[in-house]
Amino acid sequence: MPETLPYGVMLDLLIIVAVAGLWMAWWRNLNRLKKTECLLAGSIQQLDQATVQLKQAMDHIRAFEKERCVEERPRKKNASGKRPLPAENLSDDTVLVRTLLLQRKGKSDEEIADSLSIPINQVRLMLKMHSTRDS
After folding, report:
1. In the structure, what pLDDT confidence band is assigned to residue 86 with cuts at 50, 70 and 90?
2. How many angstroms separate the CA atoms of 8 and 12, rounded?
3. How far apart are CA 105 and CA 107, in angstroms?
């Protein structure tokens, strides 16, 4: 009978170790779950901010399209034969939106500067800053 006692104690120790291992695995998974929830909450905030910025950009694009359709007064033509847009009356956001729209249409930096009546260096800087922000 004394020989079975150590096997019983060893079996009890093995069960205790197994339960402790399962508890530790559960604890780690709980911590991973909490970290994942925190990351998801941060991602949701970033997505909300991006949605607000996208809405603002779409509002600027709609305003630009509306301005394009309705011309208040005739403007002087520049070297390319097109009427320049009065950049001095526009906000920086509107100039950026117009610059990006013209770039998407395949216009060169010089053509964008002529059509918006802004310096070419300003066009290049805006395009460069926008491309690095998207990356």
Report:
1. low
2. 6
3. 6
